[in-house]
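Possible regression after last week's pipeline update?

I re-ran a chain I had predicted before the update to compare outputs. Posting the input and the new output here so someone can diff against the archived version. Not blocking, just want to make sure nothing changed silently.
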Amino acid sequence: METQQPKKRFQAGQVSCALFENSIQVNGENRQITKATLGRNYKDRYGNWKTSQSYSRNEIPLAIYVLLKAFKEIVEESPKGEINQAIEEQRVE
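New output (post-update):
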């Protein structure tokens, strides 16, 4: 299985956010959307790198920072009509 590479990555300290292109079907039509993953890298007691999705009090602002950068990237790359449509679709659900 081939691992998909992120199209963009943001990092602050040990917290990082990566953007990936995903293909979805909406009303029978294929669309590309961008999704974000969030993680925190750390070394375990044996010196091996691990990833976690839990954040300490001091890491929460770093998570917010990288998520805001990711959101800005997604919003700026999307046509304005798609943003408004996505907002409307979220209200319906």
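Follow-up from reviewer: compared with the archived run. The chain has one domain: 8-92. Marking as no regression found.
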